[in-house]
Every structure is written in C-alpha cells, then in structure tokens.
C-alpha cells in the first residue's frame, strides 16, 4: 500500500490544487465537490432549523403570538422541504462523493464534470425556493407533501416557482445518483468484487437506484400540479374526471422510497462505524446487503400507508398494511446484526461511536412507532397528529441526521488531517442526545392526546407539553452550534491524524494519508 | 504504473457545469415567473429570463460537447470511460422511463379507478348517487362529470401512420448502426438521414394532429382527464422526439466529419438508444392512449 | 392532558385502543430485549476492561431465527388489525345518515333523513386567539352549532368537501376520514354514552386548518327526536322569513350592522379585518374595482363564488338577509363609500340567474 501513497508524494504535479474561487466553481474533483455538498447541507440544516425554531416559538404557548397562520404554514412547508431535499440528501451525497471513490479504489467519480453540475444546481434551486417566500402572497404553504387541490386551485401565486425549483432539485438528484451507480459499477479497483464492497457503498448503490426510480415520478407530480393550476387540466379535480387522491398516490410512490433514500446511507454509515469501534468484523455482511435490497424493493409496495384515511377500498388498505409491516423484518435484521457485531467486541466510545449507538436506539424507537402507524385501525387515530411528527423526527433527526453527524466525526480526520476535539465532541453528543429526546419524545404523548399536526395554535390541554417541547427544540438547536465549532476548529488545525486514524478501522480509505491527497488512486490499489 | 491499466481520464477544471447551473437557474426562475405572469395576464421579465436561460444552456452544451468531442478525438477516453458513458446514458433513460410512468400511471388510475368510482363503483356508490348522478363512466371520457364535452381522437388515421413512421425510423436507425459497425459509410449516412427525415415528418404530422384536435374535435388541454392525459403524454413524447432528433442531427454532422469508428462511437450509440426509447414510449402511447 | 390514546366511547374505539396497547407492549418487549443485549455488551465488552475482541461474523442459524420470529409476531398483530379494519369499513344498515361537507374552514351537516342542514363554525372569539381575552375552557374546540346524533344507533357519515381536502376526526369515536372534493367517503359510529365529543379537522386545508373544530353531541334517542323536531321547525321558519323578506326593504343601519357581523364570521379569514386581503393570494375589498364599479358582478361573486379560487358560492351558505347585508357592508366599509344599499330582492334576482 505504502508504494502507492509514496508515488503520490513524488507526483507533485498531481497533487497541485487549483486555488481561489475557481477551484470551487470549476472543480471536477470528487473531494472538492463532496466538501461543497457537505457545507451546503450544513448551511441548509441551519436555515431549515431556524424555520423549525419559528414553528416552536409560535407553538410555545397557545394563542397566536408571533406569526400569522399563513406564514406558519410556509415555515412548516419550507422547513420540511429544506431539511429533506436541502440538508439530509445533499449531506449523504457529499459523503458519497468523498468516500465512495476512496472506498472502492477509484481515481474519482465516473463523470466528474456532471458531478460538479449536480452540485451547483442545488444552491440555485434553493435560492428560488427561498426567494418565493418573499413574493406577494408568500411561498409554498401546502406542506412538504403539497396535496392537491390545496397546492393547485387554492394555492398562492408563487406555486410555479416551487414547481420549477423542485424540478431542478430533481435533476440534480438524478444526475448525482447516475454518477454514484456508474462509479460503483464501473470504477471498482480490480478484485474489489461486489461482495467485498463496504456497506456504505452498497447502501448508496441501492439508494441511487431508488433515486433514479422515484425522482422522475416526483417531477411528474409537480408537472401535473403546474398544469392543473395554470393550464386548466384536471388531473386532481373530479369535475374533470380526475381525483385529488391520485395526487397522493403519485406523490407517495415517490415519497415513501424517498424516506428510505434518507435512511439507507445512514445504515451504511453505522455499519462502518460499529465494527471499527467494536474492533470486530461486521456480523452478517451478506444478510445486511440482502436486507438493504429487500427494504428497497418493499419500499415500492407500501406507499399508500400514508393514505389510510383517504377512503381506499378495504383490500387495498390491507395490502398496504401487510407490506408495510413486512419492512420491519429486514430492518430488524440490520438492527440485530449491529448488536451482534458489538457482542463480545472490544468497544471504545469515541464520538462517532456514541452517535452510532444513539442512532441504533433512537432509530429503532422511531421504527417501532412506524410499525404502530402501519396498523391501519390505529393509524386512523395517529394519522396527521404529532404522533406522526414524533415518528418521523425520530427516524430523521436522531436517525438520518445523527448518522450524518457520526459520519462527519468519523471521517473528519481523514478530510482535514487533524483530530477533532474529543471533549467538545462528547459535549456535543450529550447535549444533542438529551435535547433531542426532550424535543421529540413528548410529541408522542401530545399526538396520542389528539393534537393535529400543521396547526399554529392548539387547545389549552396541550399547552404544558408544547412549552416543554419548544424548550427541548431550542436546546437542540443551540447544541448544534457546538458541532460547527468542532468542525471549524478541526479544519483549522489540531493534533495530526494518522492514516488509519482509528485503531479498528479497515478499508481502503484508511490506507491513504490524512488528509487524503487531492487525487487518490490514480493507479488502482491492491485489494486483498 | 502497470501497463495493463489504462488511466481513467479525469478532466481538469471545467467552467461548463457552473454555466449550466446558471442556465438552469434562469430557466426555472424565468419559467416560474413567466407562468405566473401569464396566469394573471400581465407581462414581466419571466419570459426574457427563460429565453436567456435557454440561450446560456445552448452555449453551455456547445462548449461542453466541444470539449468532450475534442477529448474523445484526441484519444483520451479509455474503454472503461466508454463504459461509464454507456452506463450513464442507460440510467438516464431509465429515469426518463419513470418520468413517463408517472403519466401512464395517472392515465391508468384515472381510467380504471377514478372514472369508475365517479360512476359509483367500489366503495363510491354515494359519490355517484349524490354528487354526479348524470355521469356516465365510459372511456374515452368524452363528457366529464362536470359536463365538459369533447370528441375522442380515433386511433386508425394519422396516429397509426405515425406509429408506422416511428417504427420504420427505428429500423432505419438500426441499419445506420450496422452500417457504422461494418464501416459502410454510405449506408450509415443514408440511413441516418432517412431516420432524421422520418422524425421530422412525425413531428409535423403530430403538429397537424394537434391542430385538428383543437379545431375540429374540440379536444383541448383543458377538456378534462382525457384531454389532459392525451396532451401531456403525446406532448412530452413530442418533446422527447424533438430532443432525440436534435441529438441525431448533431450525430449526423459528426458522421459527415468522419468522427465515429466501428469500435468507438458512444455518441452515436447514445443517440440511437434514446431514439429507440422514444419509439417504445410511442408504442405504449399508441396502445394506451389511442387504441384501448 | 391524557398521556395515552383515548379509549373512546364506541366499541370500535375500544378495539382500536386495545390494538394500540398490544402493539405498544410488543414493541416495548422487543425494545427491552434488543437494547438490553446491546447495553450488556456496551458494559461488558468494553476495551477498557481489557477484553479481546472475538472474530466471529456469521451464523446462518441466528439470521434465520431473527427473521422468522418477527414474522410470527407481525402475523399476530395483523390478525386483530384486519378484523377491526373490516368492521370499521362496514357502513351498511345505518339508522341515521349525515352528509358531512368540509369547506375552508367550516363543516356543513346535512341529515339525509330529515329536512335539516346547517353550517358549524368555530365559536372561539378572535380576541381569545389574539390573546386579548382570557381563553375559555374549550378554546378552539367549540362551535356555534354542533352535530347532534342519537346514542345506541348506527350513524353513517358521508364525507365530502367543497374545496380542498379536509379530514373529519372525533378521537372518541375513532373516526377519521378524509373529505375529498368530488368524492364521497363513508364512515360510521355507534355511540353508547350521551355526551359532548370534540375533535378537529385533521388534514392541512390552508390558513385556518387549525381553527376548524368538530363538536358532536350524542343524545338519548328520545332527546334526539325532540331536537330533530325543533331543528326542523327552526329551519322552516327561517325559510319562511326569507320569503317574506323579499318584499321588504331593510334600512342602511340594519344592513351595516348585520353585514359587519357576517363579514367578521365568514369573510375576515381571507379578506382580513382591514379589508386589505393578503396580497398575492386573497384580493383586497378596499378600493376593489369590482366592488366600486360593477354592482351586479359584486353580488354575483358573493352569491356564486369564483370557480377555481378560494372564493366560495356563499349563496348556498348564507341567508338572503345576510347576503344582502354583507354585500351592502362591503360596498360601504373600508372607504368604499358607494352609499349603496343592496336588498334581499336584489340578491334573490341574481340567485335566480336574472338581472337585477
Ligand atoms: C428516514 C425516514 C423514515 C423511515 C426509515 C421510516 C420508517 C418507517 N415508517 Fe415512516 N415516515 C417518515 C419517515 C420514515 N419512516 C416520514 C417523513 C413520514 C411522514 C410524512 C408526512 O406525512 O409528512 C412517515 C410516516 C409514516 C406513516 C404514515 C403515518 C400517517 O401519516 O398516518 C407510516 C404508516 O405506516 C409509517 C411507517 C413506517 C414504517 C413501518 C417504517 C419502517 O421502516 C420501520 C422499521 C423499523 C423497525 C420496526 C425497528 C427495528 C426492527 C426491529 C428491532 C425488529 C423487530 C420488530 C418488530 C417485529 C416489531 N411512516
Ligand atoms: C430531515 C428532516 C428534518 C429535520 C432534521 C427536522 C428537524 C427539526 N424539526 Fe422538523 N419536519 C420535517 C423534517 C425534519 N425536521 C418534515 C418533513 C416535517 C413535515 C413538514 C410538513 O408538515 O409539511 C417537519 C415538521 C416539523 C414540525 C411540525 C410542524 C407542524 O406540523 O406544524 C415541527 C414542530 O415542532 C418540527 C420541528 C423540528 C425541530 C425543532 C427540528 C430540529 O431538529 C432542528 C434543529 C436545528 C436547528 C435549530 C438549526 C441549528 C441551530 C441554530 C440556527 C442556532 C440558533 C438556535 C436557536 C435560536 C435556538 N418539524
Ligand atoms: Cu379543514 Cu384542515
Ligand atoms: Cu412511508
């Protein structure tokens, strides 16, 4: 291995980075693009989070306090959109960009220029979305699910901007996904066979497939919204022979796989971190791969579990209920495998491991509430209440976001060449862990007691809990400032990281020096 | 460096992606405003921004492809890269298929489910009895529940001819490809030209059909679900034919310049795949929109 | 606030509660086992304790085991769930049928077996929402006219909507069903105990989605019959008054006071107390060209609405008197000062499709 890294040190020409702004605008380097994705995601996380803070501020007490209902709905909607499309997905794409070529021994992504294009589309897409908030009448206010006809006949002027901005977000995701698939398929180093690929690569491979399958369907959905609103079609209008529920079918055909798009790479990250810090190989590698694939396949058959109250015929409802419940099986396999990996290992608890452990527990709790939601008669009571909000924040915040944070800590030394500040990291972890539960756990109770979601004001009985939740929210938000501090500090210097960084780490990315040279694996590495 | 390994060419910096991103921004922002202005019958900057965006996009494509062609001609592309391009193109086509699936799915749902429910099927007896007692669920939906009337487009006139044209064009394109592979330049050029010509004829006929539908049949974009699916499916298909024809046109120009070799002709291959894909979509369309 | 799902007052709602508790406890047990093992290894298999990591990493046997056990558990959950679901969907043989229509942001109830129909609006005063008055006990969960149903009878609900999707939800009945425009969904309940039951609209339906409560009063059948008779009489009387009104003319002061009341109840949500609307979504009434220059069109838009927008056909929702009053009011308030009075007969003429 050292032979290759050696070669790099001599090969000055190759490690020469372009400088200045042009480096970032014109780059074709997967590491630069990965960095841009990650920074962008962090910025969007803060913007989306600030909107969540507006929501929590308004819900702190009953009565309308700070914002108008109309604006509140815009905050809810744009918060959801930004977190999903602007924070979590780009963060995963950033990680894919950085890590996949290094993990499979490729010199770069397969289509480097297109890679840059995929990234640079995104800031513009979100610029349009955010600008639409300043239009007269405001931005999108129909929920991130933009159900018709609220988003068509009854929406405000700016809807066309929303539609086109989603279109170009979709283009970005599709191109990004194509790049990932082609890279994995075509750029693996010799002898890096499919079943030797790290799980992060596997999960991303399957995620990319999901993206290619469902993002175009989302594009179709927004297109129909556009024509229904502005061009007189009636896809979602019974008078013209359409059906508003048709919108929901199309949306959730995209939407459900979308939520797995936001969790499968997280599974990959956790499957990388747990073995490293347990110093023991991942238990059941093959079954992990099959489980991931099963989840992906099943995800196409469950979409209508978001629509149990829309009045589908019983047999359809039952079909979707059973399929949804089945997803617990492969997901359970993953959880059990992680636990078995830890069993009789020799564990240490650095920050990435802490976040990964928290992920397992909290994601599983979110999965349990998901399973409860799948039970249709019970879902009639849970649907569109804060119980659902609790469910998806557990899987998204303490699931997807925690995994991203874990990944950032895990690979920061590889990216920057310096160790992050372990004490600050632990502080960040504990603050996040406690506050995230203060924030989202009570939502289960509020939901069971009957508080609907997407309301700016609520009955008096919910007051105490909401105040509590809001405080949890503010604390969680503030805790994330520590994260930024850690990152900035680590980027600026600190203890030098070794190539392997973590004692138990295995894989190609740990065989190149830290920070990883600008170009890695110009010649393919030796795979054992 | 070992000899057996061909280096994977990672292009140096390129200005085109960011130019392309700006183009998409102008297109999206412009189109958004254009649509909004149009709906309020006022004029604004939207249309101009959209045009500017399209212009930048064309500029970007020209520049980008010029780079790619230069690189390709100077032999920078290994066979591994060729595979990347091919796989990339295939997955792009898969995504296009899924885009059409959204509309075919809508057609299926509207026809097999929504229409029947509006007519009282399944658990919707009351929908029919109370809300739409006069509605008759027959496809083509020539009279919507709300009472918009239109005429259906018959399948066995122009549409059938158009189907034949596209199918033949797929065959001629295939012959062009074999011509290329066997290094018969004449067959390549001739067949490619015929393909292009057929594509253009198809588009013209399609335009004529639209006029006919609007003027004589009263079949309009806003004539309810039948008109919606008819125009969106054929319309997006038409756009794809246009795009495919453009690709083939540039491929044709490159053929005239003698660019492709029997072994290496990714651009030709990509254009051909795209064309076949558009053809398959049409066949589905012909059955589901016109015939059935 | 109760910390768990409501048990409710119907057989179905009890079943749903049971289902909920069953799955909940199953999840708790699985969680306890999984997390228990995990924390055990966290504590025992720490490097700090000097352990050597084992190197096993595969076992088809356990993989099969932990695939099969969850499947069995899931089947165990699915069976009662299926039974309850099928019972919930069986709307046949109902004693009373009510057509429930949602519209932005109120419910309309129409009894198909009687000559009864009315709107049900949020009754919480705006001052309470704006924190200017102390909030009442049933803040946001109170309406002017609740739905009334008999106990012990199977009541069938037909749900639909006039505009966007709403969802009619009463937790105590375990009934939540979307009201889709252009379609009718069905649901049913049989309430055992008389009482007042409160719920809310459960589907985002625009700005005032949070202000669209559902209140149902369940009465003993005898009391219910009394209520039906009273209500039929009230509605018949109102209709008669309408007819009389056509011949009368109301004075400006009366029109303006009634008009203001109607405006506050029905129009203010969109057009705002200032009459300025919300730019880009709800047009202003102040200085509106339509109001100032086209009296006929003004009456028409209020009576027939504007299709394809949030402006509803209020001709179906308000009485002639209220319509005349609110039209007069909007023609004269907000500095519009047309000085014009619109009478019930004028509105009636437009309603009948004739010119004024
Ligand atoms: C990362 C995102 C993510 C993930 C992973 C999931 C995972 C799951 N979700 Fe969730 N979901 C969302 C994001 C996600 N969801 C979002 C965003 C919404 C709301 C959208 C909106 O309306 O805005 C939503 C809504 C939602 C609904 C609709 C609720 C409603 O609106 O009424 C339902 C209903 O079935 C559901 C179910 C499930 C199930 C069954 C899983 C399963 O995959 C969970 C499987 C995991 C486990 C079960 C735990 C581990 C397993 C074991 C330890 C094995 C043994 C266990 C048993 C046998 C019980 N989800
Ligand atoms: C990955 C996705 C994701 C993430 C990470 C989050 C993160 C958070 N979300 Fe969520 N949320 C969604 C996805 C997500 N959300 C979706 C899809 C919906 C549904 C939308 C819809 O109904 O259409 C939703 C809806 C939703 C609601 C329901 C709104 C409603 O129904 O009306 C609420 C309410 O509390 C909420 C709160 C929060 C909070 C407090 C956080 C926190 O975790 C955020 C923490 C981050 C920060 C706070 C930013 C960083 C810190 C600073 C900026 C420093 C300054 C801090 C302070 C001033 C305290 N979200
Ligand atoms: Cu009506 Cu929400
Ligand atoms: Cu789902």
TrEMBL record, chain A:
Location of the protein in the cell: Cell membrane; Membrane
Record-level Gene Ontology MF annotations: cytochrome-c oxidase activity; heme binding; metal ion binding
Annotated keywords: Cell membrane, Copper, Electron transport, Heme, Iron, Membrane, Metal-binding, Respiratory chain, Translocase, Transmembrane, Transmembrane helix, Transport
GO terms, biological process: electron transport coupled proton transport; oxidative phosphorylation; respiratory electron transport chain
PROSITE patterns for the chain: COX1, COX1_CUB
Top-level taxon in the UniProt lineage: Bacteria
Family annotation (Pfam families): COX1
Swiss-Prot/TrEMBL catalytic activity: 4 Fe(II)-[cytochrome c] + O2 + 8 H(+)(in) = 4 Fe(III)-[cytochrome c] + 2 H2O + 4 H(+)(out)
Primary location class: membrane
Sequence ranges assigned to domain Cytochrome oxidase subunit I profile in this UniProt record: 24-528
Family: Belongs to the heme-copper respiratory oxidase family.
NCBIfam families linked: CtaD_CoxA
Function: Cytochrome c oxidase is the component of the respiratory chain that catalyzes the reduction of oxygen to water. Subunits 1-3 form the functional core of the enzyme complex. CO I is the catalytic subunit of the enzyme. Electrons originating in cytochrome c are transferred via the copper A center of subunit 2 and heme A of subunit 1 to the bimetallic center formed by heme A3 and copper B.
Protein name per Swiss-Prot or TrEMBL: Cytochrome c oxidase subunit 1
Source organism of this protein record: Alishewanella aestuarii B11
TrEMBL record, chain B:
Top-level taxon of origin: Bacteria
Sequence intervals crossing the membrane: 16-36, 48-69, 89-110, 117-135, 155-176, 188-208, 228-253, 273-291
Membrane topology: Multi-pass membrane protein
EC number(s) recorded for this UniProt protein: 7.1.1.9
InterPro entries xrefs: Cyt_c/ubiquinol_Oxase_su3, Cyt_c_oxase_su3_dom, Cyt_c_oxidase-like_su3, Cyt_c_oxidase_su3-like_sf, Cyt_c_oxidase_su3_a-hlx
Domain Heme-copper oxidase subunit III family profile, first and last residues per copy: 4-292
Signal peptide segment: none
The UniProt record lists the keyword Repeat: no
GO function terms (MF aspect): cytochrome-c oxidase activity
CDD domains per record: Cyt_c_Oxidase_III
Gene3D superfamilies for the chain: 1.10.287.70, Cytochrome c oxidase, subunit III, four-helix bundle
Entry keyword annotation includes Transmembrane helix: yes
SUPFAM superfamilies: Cytochrome c oxidase subunit III-like
Keywords (A to Z) from UniProt: Membrane, Translocase, Transmembrane, Transmembrane helix
Biological process terms in GO annotation: aerobic electron transport chain
Localisation: Cell membrane; Membrane
Any one cellular-component term (Gene Ontology): plasma membrane
Family assignment from sequence similarity: Belongs to the cytochrome c oxidase subunit 3 family.
The protein, known as: cytochrome-c oxidase
UniProtKB/TrEMBL annotation, chain C:
Record-level Gene Ontology MF annotations: copper ion binding; cytochrome-c oxidase activity; heme binding; oxidoreductase activity
One of the GO biological process terms: ATP synthesis coupled electron transport
Enzyme Commission identifier(s): 7.1.1.9
Cross-referenced Pfam families: COX2, COX2_TM, Cytochrome_CBB3
InterPro entries, sorted: CcO_II (IPR045187), CcO_II-like_C (IPR002429), Copper_CuA (IPR001505), Cupredoxin (IPR008972), Cyt_c-like_dom (IPR009056), Cyt_c-like_dom_sf (IPR036909), Cyt_c_oxidase_su2 (IPR014222), Cyt_c_oxidase_su2_TM_dom (IPR011759)
Location of the Cytochrome c domain: 254-334
GO cellular component: plasma membrane
Chain ranges passing through the membrane: 23-43, 64-82
Cofactor(s) demanded: Cu cation
Broad class of where this protein is predominantly found: membrane
Keyword Hydrolase attributed: no
Membrane topology: Multi-pass membrane protein
Enzyme class: translocase
Cofactor binding remark: Binds a copper A center.
Domain Cytochrome oxidase subunit II copper A binding: 93-230
UniProt keyword list: Copper, Electron transport, Heme, Iron, Membrane, Metal-binding, Respiratory chain, Translocase, Transmembrane, Transmembrane helix, Transport
Sequence ranges assigned to domain Cytochrome oxidase subunit II transmembrane region profile in this UniProt record: 1-92
Annotated compartments: Cell membrane; Membrane
Catalysis: reaction(s): 4 Fe(II)-[cytochrome c] + O2 + 8 H(+)(in) = 4 Fe(III)-[cytochrome c] + 2 H2O + 4 H(+)(out)
Xref: NCBIfam families: CoxB
Family: Belongs to the cytochrome c oxidase subunit 2 family.
Known function: Subunits I and II form the functional core of the enzyme complex. Electrons originating in cytochrome c are transferred via heme a and Cu(A) to the binuclear center formed by heme a3 and Cu(B).
The protein's name: Cytochrome c oxidase subunit 2
